[in-house]
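User: Second chain of the day. Same drill as before.
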Amino acid sequence: MFKHRQGASAGRRYPEGGSTCVIVIVLLLVIGLSGCGYRFTGDRDPVIDIKTVHIPPMANTTTKVGIETQFTNEFIFEVDRNGIAEVVDRDMAEAVLEGVIRDLRTGSIARRNITTTLERRVSVTVDLTLKDRKGKVLWQSSLRDSEAYSVLSDKTSTEGNLRRALAIISRRLAERFHYQFTATF
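Assistant: Same format as last time:
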């Protein structure tokens, strides 16, 4: 029933036809997974089929001046990168993606003592609305994300850390937009 194989695995015994058994199991798995509708896929189809979109600069209702450019650029990059639609001028677009940076909050998450903060968390909320040419809302969502950053004795370095945290948040929110927009329900 078992035959002895020579070489690197000397001393081990394998059942005859072992490789045939593995092939049969793999084939059954492939057939089973394809039969139940399960499929491997990298991207999904968009919820709303649009080919062209305009993304104007986001509105910023927070006290942090200038972040609207960074957030708008990340959303444009994400749409271009994933091929959801082509970003075009407003007059050529089937739809417009409007964004409002509604809320930005910071809070201490680690302290050395009552007066010295070591780490803060910044949280941002962005409201997104996709409208067709006539202004009809096609899709709407409110996204929120946060990131921690170090607080240093040098205010310039702390501000740089905050900017890097906001860059991370803007990238993640753009990716989350892509995920939600392409989710099929």
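Strands lie at 2-4, 13-15, 52-54, 59-60, 86-87, 95-113, 116-132, 137-150.

User: Great, on to the next one.
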